[in-house]
Amino acid sequence: MTLKASQLIDLSHLIVSGIPTWDLACGFQLHVDSDYPEHGFRVQSLQMPAGIGTHIDAPAHACPGGRDISQFGLDELLNPCVVIDVSAQAHALYSVSVDDIIQFERIHGPLTPGCFVIIYTGWEQYW
After folding, report:
1. For residue 113, what is the enclosing H or E element?
2. What would the mean pLDDT of 49-70 be, rounded to a whole number?
3. Alpha-carbon separation of residue 8 from 51, 78, 91, 111 (angstroms)
4. Calpha distance 55→19 (Å, rounded)
């Protein structure tokens, strides 16, 4: 894959105090610990759960002995990607099904081994 022949799409969101979280708790706080205006310097600290915002959920998060993000090379994180759009049928309790994947492959062909799959649910409307 060459970057010249690729389309790069930024899927990130700003991390702010009202960022949505899975447990509905406050997701992010920024504190000014020390301020040195005479030197143009400020010391800040961040407080947030690891699973908020746009992030990569490493296998170590749920698989004992799984790799954490520091164990992945950049070459493993740049791969072709497909988007499976389930937004037309997604609702508050929707779970992606095997049938969703089969339907996608009927239309677009089989998923390529090693590609990333993004499931588009349309939930950005709640962000």
Report:
1. none
2. 85
3. 23, 10, 28, 19
4. 13
Residues listed for the chain: 127
Is residue 39 within 8 Å of residue 6, measured between CB atoms?
A: no
| Tally of CB atoms within 10 A around 81 | 13
Say if residue 75's pLDDT is above 70: yes
Q: What is the pLDDT of residues 99-112, one digit of tens each?
A: 999 999 999 999 99
Q: Is the dihedral of CA 119, 4, 115, 79 positive or negative?
A: negative
State pTM to two decimals.
Answer: 0.63
Q: Which two tokens stand for residue 94?
A: 């929707």
> Which bin fits 65, alpha (ψ -120 to 50), beta or left (φ > 0)?
left
